[in-house]
Input
Amino acid sequence: MQDKEELFFNPDLTPDEFKRLGYKAIDMIADYYSHIRELPVFPARTSTEIESVFKEDLPASSQDPDDILNEWVSKILPNTTHLGSPRYFGFVNGSGSMIGTLAEALAAALNMNAGGWKPAPAATEIERRTIAWIAELIGYPVDCGGLFTSGGTIANFTAIETALRNVAPYDTTEKGLQNKEFKGRFTIYMSDHEGHVSIVRVADLLNLGRESIRLVKSNADFTMDTADLERKLDEDIAAGCVPFCVVAQVGSINVGAVDPLAEISRVCKLRGIWFHADGACGAVGAMLPEKRSMYEGLELADSVTLDPHKWLYIPYECGCVLVRDPEKLRRAFSLTAPYLHGVLPTEYTGMYYLDYGPQMSRGFLALKVWMTLKHYGAEGYRKLLAQNNKCVEYLDELVRGSDDFETFHKPSLFIYSFRYAPRKLKSNSALSKLELENKLDELNQRIADSIQLSGVAFVMTSKVLGKIVLRLSVCSHRTTLADIKLVFDKLRDIGDSLVNEMKR
Ligand SMILES: Cc1ncc(COP(=O)(O)O)c(C=O)c1O
Output
């Protein structure tokens, strides 16, 4: 027996080795955080250059853990885009809380599988509690169902799958979409300008076909035109379709617009359609008393998506979906197999999250949200969110106060789009309207590329009303007004020198 056991390989570190390496890793992280402000936000290296850094043979034998950790400093950090930088404004990427970083390590140590209660009793109850806290924060019913997901897309998928399975006129869970008796088409609705592409991914995942997505006209403020929504719903119903879900934007991707939620709820209720609020970016803004009126009707949604890895500053990954009626969520996802829940009931069991979402095995995502919520408290979060909004209001002031920039919307939350459109170019009568627009498109794209390469800030482009715009998503808990001023000045300097270059 002893001889045989000696053959067993056990790669665990000794307690002393683990402590030494653990302290070293914490020192590395602490050092990183203390310099995060000064780091170039983007590594400004090409994919080929970075690929070559990591080109090495499969490690055949054991390597020294010190050497492995050292590669974090020598190889990983210099090739990283720093989402935790106060001047990272890309996509809608949160900045990552420090206590969330510790939570990730602690969660990994327990290695809980939060798909079931038996392998994860504490994780299950923490998730249940944290979901209720989030609901309370945004004014949604606290007895709702819900869970953490890998991100907003999967949260939207979870909500829309639940919608389909609860609204369809027959049992799609058993019969699927290939049902002889049903000849209609299931349809989903979102606004044409600000509706998010993740809903296209959901249509793909559900195999509904992308044509199942109906684009509803937008108002001048980029919110959904509910008169057009009603028209489209009624036309589709008359044509034999089954409209089953309307997706409202709650903090839209380009301009932070919040659709008229109460009105959309009314339209949906009247026709028995599921009302889903995609608040991946902005739902958590409902916790701000000064913004509360914008969110009127959010509490009426059948489901809400919100991403803790966006505006709650939780380290990746962490999405979240709330469903008003937990039973509807269970009906959409529950599965049975003798090896899942145990064949005969005992009192030592509880909620199985695998019955409430698409994943079976799942990590302890709730811990980082639970710990960060405790660390910041609701008050801390309100201050941080308000700070981000203030940054965008300040940016809007700078833009509106300048002859060289223009915007197409008023700031409502933390996302803002605008463009460099210098007077000297706009007043050039030699340019046709189309030539001017093309020039401005090119100029703004080059400004974004150039500021990224400078390392000063990470700004991306998008399109608003068909024009290329600079877009800032200010959802870092580290961003200050000084950062906003710095990035604005830098954008203008780059723009000015590009225009001068064009003239030469
Ligand atoms: C409105 C909206 N919904 C959904 C998503 C998708 O979220 P994720 O990238 O976490 O899947 C995003 C991402 O930016 C978004 O802005």
Summary: The pocket of pyridoxal-5'-phosphate is lined by residues 91-92, 151-153, 156, 196, 198, 253, 278, 280-281, 307, 319 (CB under 6 Å). The longest strand covers residues 242-249. The radius of gyration is 25 Å.
